[in-house]
Amino acid sequence: MKQAREVTFNIKKIGLAWYRLSPLKRWSAIAFVIGLLLYVPAFLRTPSAIADDSTTGSTATRAGRLLVFDDVWQTIAQRYYDPAIRGINWEAQRTEFRPLAAEANSSREFYAILRRMLARLGDAHTRVFSPEEKFDWWNPRFLSIGISIREIEGVPVVVRVDKRSAPERAGVRAGDVIESIDGQPALVLIQQRLLEQPDASLHASMRSRAFASVLEGSPGTPVTVRWEGRDGTERKGQFERYWGQRELGLRMRRVKRKYAVIEIDAFTKTIAFEFSRLLRDKLSEAHGIVLDLRGNGGGDTEAMADVASAFLGEQVPLGQFMDRTGLTVKIVTHSRSLLTPIKWRRNPLPLVILTSERTSSASEIFVAAMRVAGRATVIGTETCGCVLAIRSRHPLPDGGILDVSELDFRTPDGNRLEGQPIRSDRLVVLERSDLYERRDPGLAAGLAYLSRTK
To answer: pTM of this prediction?
Structure first.
């Protein structure tokens, strides 16, 4: 009898927890359970059958490559948010790329072919990762030689050099131009990548990715880089590629004791909680806020809604997600955090948001909502225009991962943000000279605007 009462109590607790979940989280939970049910047959196979699968699922064999390719192609055909696959003849893509995938000489070459096919979608969210590249969005890692590259003034420019890295010891500095990679002109290599992706030169996210990843290769392999310094002198060095790790977080600093500059890498539960603590404990004497989202690639929608609630108040519609069947989930602000024990109070401080082409996904929803409400001034360059959503990650037969955009987004007035970058109220572009002089023109413009705001 005691056991029966405990079971009943637990069921009530589960029901209450379910009731408290947001619609989007309920939807994710349902998708997770369905996914488990779909994988039940795998647990019923014999050990010999499982062993056979591990062999055929390896991209070291032709059969394994075809198995993985077909899984990727079919999953997109069945789960992509747009049943028309954006007007692309998806069957034709299979016909074109399947023979190439079958004859790939390595796992790296095979996955490069898959990426060329997925690039036809023009979708920054639909991506594929090999087993060794498995990407954890919440703890992102990346291949590096110790520097970061962006397109500035039409050329690949070093924007950051890691301290105590081999490139720093070799004299590479932020502002230097990458001229060649393993003897090939860097701009030629970038152009080749762009030519493989239709309209990539027009899509900010893909163009940015082509520049940022030009030095990528297999971890542990050397790469010879030739670069041009500030005085025009060219130098050359050989560096080794390695996996780097990035911790997503939130950083705040005070400027002239009046203004709070808050840089948010992503919207996560932890960051939303830290943000709420900042508003409550650290900003009582601030005169204005600069919110730096230039490197924010999105994240958890509920965490984003939490942060938006601090500036907009409760029950303000932020938009809605919709899947290929027409099922929708509305996103609204709220009076109390769904992720933390904090009760939001509408913050009245003047707000400036800094954006770039790396501002994407949930951060674009945030920027759009602030602009519609007249709550913030946006400074910088236009955003990514990458606002789709992934319901759940799809495991591939060889241990790789496929991310598929299963949800489209509409603003409260019905506008799509996907493919429609948000333009800033004031365009501010970074130049090479700014990097050499360690200037941040976007931040300077934001602080200047706040100083004129009463």
So the answer is: 0.82
